[in-house]
Specification:
single chain, 160 residues, alpha+beta, Thiol Ester Dehydrase, Chain A, seven-stranded antiparallel β-sheet, globular
Length: 160
Amino acid sequence: MIPLHSPMPEGPLPAHVDSCFGCGHRNPAAVGMALELRGDRIIGRFTLDERHQGAPGVAHGGVVAAVLDEASGTVPTTMCVPAVTAKLEVNYARPAPLHRPMIVSAVLARREGERKLHITARLELDGALVADARALFIVVTPEHFFANGAQEGDIPFFGV
């Protein structure tokens, strides 16, 4: 783990986009993760329900991957560095149950040059590992988001 040197204060983080599947509050299918910055770590708390179901009673593996990706992607966001997922490797340890509060965390493991951010994430239930991930994020310019549909004011974390 390396320091984030985040310009943001510790504590709760706003949704980066209201309609985000991970942290948005206006998306009816959203996980509704409450994210916070604690030291050099992102912590997210959430509870999955039937909208996120795969097999009966448990979350779909893709939703688990999305949760790990969301926490990982919040690391560069708190650094005010625009970045996108290039690779996400998920290891599943046990099923993620519905209707049980879970915690996801993410840290910056290392930075490679100017553009590559290596991030690790961990999903836990009652302190036990559910899944973990290694992610590679690539730093982009804010124009990347505008070219893909963002409007002025949509990405305040990056000053645009």
